[in-house]
Specification:
Layout (H helix, E strand, L loop, with lengths): L2 H14 L7 H8 L3 H12 L6 E6 L3 E6 L6 H9 L3 H12 L5 H7 L4 H13 L8 E2 L6 E2 L2 H15 L12 H15 L1 E3 L1 H19 L19 H15 L5 H13 L2 E3 L7 H8 L4 H15 L7 H18 L2 H6 L5 H7 L1 H17 L7 H12 L7 E6 L4 H15 L3 E4 L8 H6 L4 E4 L10 E3 L6 H12 L1
Parallel strand pairs: 7-8, 7-9, 9-10
Antiparallel strand pairs: 1-2, 3-4, 5-6
Length: 478
């Protein structure tokens, strides 16, 4: 990846997190670059900014990003910048030309010397392409590797380059593909989330391109009951429409592959649909995911007594295992699948994530042949986190600092925990068990040791860490 683009996207993302002046020291620490480099970057980035976005640099104040909230987003700007990188332009050319250009011809298309292109290829083979187990050949540059990995890589590449607008595929019309997906929505009375539908259209276009070139995938027909799936017939109809329009032929494995992507894309039923959560749960009975989900319910109940296991949660878990089984039928895709939220979830929901790791490890003893990875643990963490019922409790905050700091810490905790927690910061004449009971305190939060018998005490740093906040949340679950 181009280093200049990577730093520019990091800088823009950082400046867009808050509407304030970021000191040069903050930016230097976050990006690991010098004051001089920051100024040079801002100068280069400013040439690519639309009129409603500006970046100011002041020696005394730092760096400030100004943009109209109703105008173009920073994500759109970063996508446009990504399309200008040598990395994207090279990979896009390799996709569209499929090895028809010599290294000299390709260098000419990219307006660079042959030696520079060869160095770029070596760099990509050793870095950006390595996680996908892909490589570019040298004399006649061509992308090489497992077909599943090639599709996944290009799906990610084009979704990043055209996240909101644009369409990079010349051989098939976006409106046509979008309508085919809409036909499935209408038939099954569902609606895909906007970003999921767009990503699905990109993947279908990639499948069409690869099959047209004779590059097909193999899907295990026995590891999942494909023909019993709710999307099998709609996808079969979609494939037939594509075959007739583009004069291509989809092998059965390709239909199953497209079915998996249509099934795994995020959707929900229309409001007022006859398909209620209870009806959806019934669809999972007598299927392999049903006992799998029931075992996880038992394990979760021991860890989270206050988990709201209502119809919606039960359905999400059964659906999670159905999709997990589908992923297992295409192991090459499963092994490279990643979630953009994994790093965030592992940091912000660290305790729940680790507890679910333990739950799934125990669950896996009953189903050792079923594989899962961080992608699935991330999704499961979000499902569980959104269904935890926090009790409304009152905590007394004891901070051995001045009153203004006590109020600051109370506001910080409230902001992080939410309305379920009432933080009492009043001054008491000694903190005793009798006093705590008199004020109906459920637990105490303190930055120094407190001895009480009737209520628990959560000890925190003066400025609460993420672990401290997790410990406070845990009290609301008890």
């Amino acid at each position: 990846m181009d280093k200049g683009y990577t730093l520019a996207s990091q800088l823009l993302t950082l400046l867009d997190t808050e509407q304030r002046w970021f000191t040069l020291a903050e930016v230097e620490k976050s990006l690991g670059i010098s004051d001089k480099t920051i100024r040079k970057m801002v100068e280069e980035i400013s040439k690519q900014l639309p009129p409603d976005i500006t970046i100011e640099v002041s020696r005394g104040k730092g760096v400030f990003l100004r943009r109209d909230g109703r105008g173009k987003t920073i994500s759109e700007l970063i996508s446009a910048m990504f399309r200008q990188t040598s990395f994207y332009r090279l990979m896009n050319l390799l996709f569209t030309t499929d090895g028809r250009f010599s290294v000299e011809e390709l260098a000419g298309e990219l307006f660079m010397s042959t030696s520079s292109l060869k160095k770029l290829i070596v760099h990509l083979n050793n870095n950006d392409l390595k996680p996908y187990k892909l490589r570019i050949t040298y004399s006649t540059p061509k992308i090489k590797g497992n077909e599943m990995s090639i599709r996944y890589f290009y799906w990610k590449l084009y979704c990043d380059a055209y996240e909101f607008t644009g369409w990079p595929f010349a051989n098939i019309n976006f409106a046509y593909v979008d309508q085919l997906i809409t036909n499935i929505e209408n038939e099954k009375n569902i609606v895909y989330f906007i970003n999921s539908k767009r990503k699905l259209a990109f993947l279908l276009a990639i499948v069409v391109d690869r099959v047209t070139r004779g590059k097909c995938v193999k899907v295990d027909e026995n590891r999942y009951p494909w023909e019993k799936g709710m999307f099998y017939l709609p996808v079969k109809t979609l494939a037939k429409s594509l075959e007739e329009k583009l004069s291509i032929d989809f092998p059965k494995s390709e239909i199953f592959f497209m079915q998996s992507r249509v099934s795994l894309s995020q959707y929900h039923y229309y409001e007022g649909s006859e398909m209620t959560p209870m009806n959806e749960v019934e669809l999972h009975k007598d299927k392999e995911e049903y006992p799998m989900g029931n075992l996880l319910f038992t394990l979760l109940a021991k860890v989270y007594p206050n988990l709201d296991m209502g119809e919606r949660f039960i359905l999400e878990v059964y659906d999670f295992f159905d999709k997990l089984l589908m992923d297992n039928a295409i192991p090459e895709w499963l092994m490279i699948s990643k979630s953009n939220l994994s790093t965030y979830v592992q940091k912000e929901c660290q305790q729940i994530y680790q507890e679910l790791q333990d739950c799934m490890k125990t669950w896996n003893e009953a189903y050792p042949s079923v594989l899962y990875n961080d992608f699935h643990l991330t999704k499961l963490t979000l499902i569980v986190r959104s269904s935890l019922r926090y009790k409304r409790k009152t905590a007394f905050l004891v901070i051995g600092e001045e009153f203004s700091i006590r109020h600051y810490i109370a506001d910080l905790i409230k902001k992080e925990i939410g309305d379920q927690l009432i933080v009492n910061t009043s001054i008491m004449k000694g903190l005793t068990d009798e006093m705590v009971q008199e004020h109906h305190i459920d637990f105490v939060i303190s930055n120094f040791p407190v001895s009480l018998k009737t209520v628990p005490v959560v000890t925190i740093s003066t400025i609460p860490s993420q672990r401290d906040l997790d410990n406070i949340r845990k009290e609301l679950l008890l």
